[in-house]
Amino acid sequence: MTESQLSEHLALAHARRLEARQRWEGRLTEVKECFGEFIELKAAELAASGATVVRTTAGDLDARIVQFQWGNPVLQIDGFKARLGRSEEGDPTVLSHYLAFKFCDLDENAEPLE
């Protein structure tokens, strides 16, 4: 591969990354605008009880906060794991952010069922 070809390849890869990021940010904005209230209710339930199920037309998202004796709590949402700070585990705003991110992984036509 010549230097010119390499430069062209890298420029194309960069453009694709930017495009993918814009699509992702657009999807996240759409999810928050369309389903933000629903996600916030589920996040409040998660903060209060430590678990919730987000029922959607594309399937359920099972979310729970796992407490460890030594260390930070961990948020688990269908295979996704995030370590939370002690103050974050009870913060619906933080939890709704994670739920919205995971909702974005569903089919783009997914809608809440509850």
Descriptive account of the structure:
The protein is of the alpha+beta class and 114 residues long. The protein has one domain. Helices cover 53% and strands 19% of the residues. It contains two helices and four strands. It has helices spanning 3-49, 92-104; strands spanning 51-56, 59-66, 74-77, 80-83. A four-stranded antiparallel sheet has the order 1-2-3-4, with helices on one face. Strand 1 and strand 2 (59-66) form a beta hairpin. Helix 1 (3-49) packs across helix 2 (92-104). The protein is globular and about 60 Å long. The N and C termini lie far apart (54 Å).
Features:
alpha+beta, 114 residues, four-stranded antiparallel β-sheet, 4 strands, globular, 19% strand
In short:
The protein is α+β, with helices and mostly antiparallel strands. It has helices spanning 3-49, 92-104; strands at residues 51-56, 59-66, 74-77, 80-83.
Secondary-structure topology with pairs:
Blueprint: H1 3-49, E1 51-56, E2 59-66, E3 74-77, E4 80-83, H2 92-104
Antiparallel strand pairs: 1-2, 2-3, 3-4
Task: Return the string of H and E elements.
Answer: HEEEEH
State the helicity in percent bands. 40-55%
Q: Oligomer, anyone?
A: single chain
Percentage of residues in DSSP E strands? 15-25%
Structural class by helix and strand composition: alpha+beta
Count of alpha/pi helices: 2
Number of E-state strands: 4
Mean pLDDT score, rounded?
91
Spatial arrangement of strands, main beta sheet: 1-2-3-4
Sheet having the most strands:
4 strands, antiparallel
Rg on CA atoms, Å: 18 Å
Shape: globular
Ranges with pLDDT <50 over ≥5 residues? Answer: none
Between the first and last Cα atoms, what is the distance in angstroms?
54 Å
Number of domains: 1
